[in-house]
Amino acid sequence: MVITELFVDGEPAGSVPASDRGLLYGHGLFETMRLWRGELPLLDLHLARLESGARALSIACDLRALKLQLNCLLPKLPAEGLLKLVLTAGDGLRGYRYDSASSESKARCLIQYFALDHGSSEVRLKLCEYRLPDNPRLAGIKHLNRLDQVMAAAELPPKSDGLLLDQTGNVIEALSSNLFILYQGQWLTPSLQKSGVAGVMRQLLMDRVMPAVDLTPLCQDIELGMLQGAEEIFICNAVRGISSVTEIRGLAQTLFSTAGTPSSESTQTALIQAELGKQYPCFGE
After folding, report:
1. How far is CA 139 from the centre of its chain?
2. Which CATH fold would you assign to the domain 7-114?
3. pTM above 0.70, yes or no
4. How do residues 179-190 score in pLDDT, each as one tens digit?
5. How many CB atoms within 10 Å of residue 17?
6. Tens digit of pLDDT for each residue in 160-215?
7. How far is Cα 82 from Cα 113, in angstroms, rounded to an integer?
8. What is d(CA 220, CA 170) in angstroms, rounded to the nearest whole number?
9. Cβ(122)–Cβ(244) under 8 Å?
10. How is the chain classified by DSSP, letter by letter?
11. How far is the C-alpha of 26 from the C-alpha of 139, rounded, in Å?
């Protein structure tokens, strides 16, 4: 079984050229995908988001070629873990300008395998002082420029997760996950119109999983103060699925805590988790 840290355009490699626009300018996208029993259960959703993001960044995205690379690579890797797929704008001349119509403009695909750290099904969040900038043109896109997350992560102690706000103080997301709250009997998730990443798991929950248990989440602005009145909160991503939030620590006070509430088995979050595991067994193990 062949395991290398990096595959570039389908071939084992140790690096990318210094002229790659993803390296130079963050001109690219990435998808982090759960690998389960030798398959990628959410592949179609990941590729659909990748194609949409590539269109927004003027990067040529050949889904057929990407699928071929993945099909050739998967048998060479362990059956469990995660894959990170990076699509960059490829090589470019010095300077920011990029001609996507040029015959020399060719996207580059990087694929890495990582062992899966399952982590805990329950998490505590810490409010980050760093706030996400407003950028409606890039909001929702999982582009390579993650300096905002790097700055926020620098505030956090090891093995902890962060809660990120926008410039007006509204809740946007966790460090690498989307967020849902049950507020006054209604499930809500941030709208992500100005900042944040529109996650694949977030989409799956809204479109397929929650409606299957007669729950209809709404996308809207969520003020920080609403967390104190929330009945349940969970975060989600395409690698770990759903993780219940048991506490959110603010800069000077606790913003949310499940202490003294009913057991986690009786919550709506548990119902959603069970339905997710039913539809996608990799998240039910």
Report:
1. 13
2. D-amino Acid Aminotransferase; Chain A, domain 1 (3.30.470)
3. yes
4. 999 999 999 999
5. 10
6. 899 999 999 999 999 999 999 999 999 999 999 999 999 999 999 999 999 999 99
7. 6
8. 10
9. yes
10. ----S-EETTEE-S---TTBHHHHH--EEEEEEEEBTTB-TTHHHHHHHHHHHHHHTT----HHHHHHHHHHHGGGS-SSEEEEEEEE--B--SSS---TTSTT---EEEEEEE------SEEEEEEEEEEPPP-TTTTB--BS--HHHHHHHTTSPTT-EEEEE-TTSBEEEESSSEEEEEETTEEEE---SSSSB--HHHHHIIIIIHHHTT---EE---BGGGGGGEEEEEEEETTTEEEEEEEEE-SSSEEEE-TTSPPGGGSHHHHHHHHHHHH-GGGT-
11. 15
Strand partners, 178: 236
For residue 260, pLDDT over 80 is answered with no
Architecture of domain 122-283: Alpha-Beta Barrel (3.20)
Tokens of 106: 């060719």
Q: Identify the residue whose tokens are 């057929």.
A: 64
Segment 69-86, tens digit of pLDDT: 999 999 999 999 999 999
CA angle, 56 as apex, 97 and 23 as ends, to 5°?
50
Task: Locate the domains of the chain by residue range.
Answer: 7-114, 122-283
